[in-house]
């Protein structure tokens, strides 16, 4: 695609990264571009992650992942992709491989400011940005933030926006994290796949969606759970009776337990079900209390 191409450039800032301890790879991206998550992020567990942007050549995603799976390093894959692309000067791409080696490319004709910062296990890149501080702040924040990869990626993205981000404004964002058998039911590697296609504040919306994902899909921590003693079982029985899950708050303990599990299943809190351990997740308990009034 040359400068006469009818499609707009994917003016974007993104980060690709790896968490070697958790065995996760991910991409976070924001752009003044509709549904950027459908174009830029690509990742495969045990293989790596790729962000392709600026008049994006979307074949870089699947082809790059295949090359990474074949044993090439991030830099070797990057070199091959751009060498085979006659319009390489318009492209921008970031890659992190299975070992955490990172590489980034910014074509000579990418719209300014355009550039990148790479380090051990990550690459930050962007075009049509307010300046180099966008990607520098992303890198600094990623390195200094604790927590799961999803949180570190999102915080890096927000740091880039604080430095001016995409000079055209905000529209869409996406967060993709992969892990072996990390998808629903363990049937694929899509641990987190969240997209904000069109929103006045895609950062806040993406953060809200990540909070919901953590509520519904992160496993409860038994160490922080509340013990189900007699007083709490009686309280829960009253809540479930008000919500129509029990005929009476005076039901037996086994009936209350079964009703609690039915309510948990209806609310999609299976990953936080600790009733078999005689405990209840505090977030689940809070939601039950609020629903019952």
From TrEMBL:
Where does the Putative peptidoglycan binding domain start and stop, copy by copy? 216-288
**The organism sits in which domain of life?**
Bacteria
Protein known as: Putative peptidoglycan binding domain-containing protein
């Amino acid at each position: 695609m040359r400068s006469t191409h009818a499609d707009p450039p994917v003016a974007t800032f993104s980060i690709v990264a790896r968490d070697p301890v958790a065995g996760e790879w991910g991409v976070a991206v924001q752009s003044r571009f509709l549904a950027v998550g459908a174009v830029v992020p690509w990742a495969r567990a045990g293989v790596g992650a790729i962000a392709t942007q600026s008049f994006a050549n979307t074949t870089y995603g699947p082809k790059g992942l295949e090359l990474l799976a074949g044993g090439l390093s991030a830099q070797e894959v990057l070199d091959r992709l751009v060498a085979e692309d006659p319009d390489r000067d318009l492209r921008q791409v970031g890659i992190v491989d299975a070992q955490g080696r990172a590489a980034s490319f910014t074509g000579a004709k990418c719209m300014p400011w355009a550039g990148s910062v790479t380090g051990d296990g990550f690459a930050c890149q962007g075009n049509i940005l307010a300046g180099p501080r966008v990607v520098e702040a992303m890198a600094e924040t990623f390195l200094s933030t604790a927590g799961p990869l999803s949180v570190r990626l999102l915080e890096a993205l927000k740091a880039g926006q604080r430095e001016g981000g995409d000079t055209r404004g905000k529209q869409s964002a996406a967060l993709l994290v992969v892990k072996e058998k990390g998808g629903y039911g363990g049937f694929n590697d899509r641990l987190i796949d969240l997209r904000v296609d069109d929103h006045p504040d895609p950062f806040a919306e993406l953060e809200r969606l990540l909070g919901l994902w953590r509520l519904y899909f992160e496993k409860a921590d038994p160490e922080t759970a509340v013990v189900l003693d007699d007083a709490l079982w009686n309280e829960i029985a009253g809540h479930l009776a008000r919500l129509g899950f029990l005929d009476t708050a005076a039901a037996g303990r086994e009936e209350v337990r079964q009703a609690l599990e039915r309510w948990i299943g209806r609310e999609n809190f299976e990953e936080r079900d600790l009733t078999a351990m005689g405990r209840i997740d505090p977030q689940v308990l809070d939601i039950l209390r609020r629903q019952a009034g």
